[in-house]
Amino acid sequence: MSKHAMIKETILKKIKSGEYQPGDRLQTEKELCVQFDVSRTTVRIALEQLEKEGYLDRVRGRGTFIAERKVTQALTQTVKRYSDQVAVQGKTAENQLIDLQVIPADSLAVHFKLEPSAPVQKVERIRRANMHITQYEVSYIPWDAAPGITKEDAEYSLYSTLQEKYKVPVTRTVEHVEIILADDRIAGLLDYDVGAPCFYIETTTYSSSDRVIEYSHSYFRGDITNFTIERHYGGGEADESNH
């Protein structure tokens, strides 16, 4: 392991263990140089990587501080609202509607098994946690599945709206996840740096009749979000192919 990687791992372990708390001031570069017996260049590489990954805040003239904990969301069998997932982490959530319009299905027609001219609702939202933008999302919902989605519905919860208002049960989702770099548009929407890493998640949502009732693509800031994945096995021996 390189020296800067060793420094990074040591600091990261202290952050994740709770030894370092959000807002704590980290030792100076000079102090870290002495502690690890390395050059300032080596220390700076470690700190820069931790800053890019969202674990440190470096403030010119003041020092380096432990950043707020990342917003964790679940990639598991859940229809919990975003606000509920964020609330248990001691944060305040907000869904902000950017745009809501009805458009022809066009290229989405095959996805939804509709005619190209069939109406589809396009919902664009930004999500925040403690006033910080964490996510930009575009969702598409067929008009005949949930006609007349409102601003209030979109800023509450689309899944809850489908289930409670339209009696359309959400039974499963298929999610494709990858890492991308923010372009000018996505960086502007997320209040983020161009070229910074984002989680990109493409989700297809199915009802109890196995109909596609929602399709979305979401962009998450990589520096302030992470994900948990929970798997359930059927009581017997776990399938080793899943490990």
Automatic annotation (TrEMBL):
The keyword DNA damage does not apply. PROSITE patterns: HTH_GNTR. This is GntR family transcriptional regulator. Pfam families: GntR, UTRA. Transmembrane segments: none annotated. The keyword DNA repair does not apply. Residues 1-69 form the HTH gntR-type domain. Keywords: DNA-binding, Transcription, Transcription regulation. Coiled coil: none annotated. InterPro entries: Bact_HTH_transcr_reg, Chorismate_lyase_/UTRA_dom_sf, Tscrpt_reg_HTH_GntR, UTRA, WH-like_DNA-bd_sf, WH_DNA-bd_sf. It comes from the Bacteria.
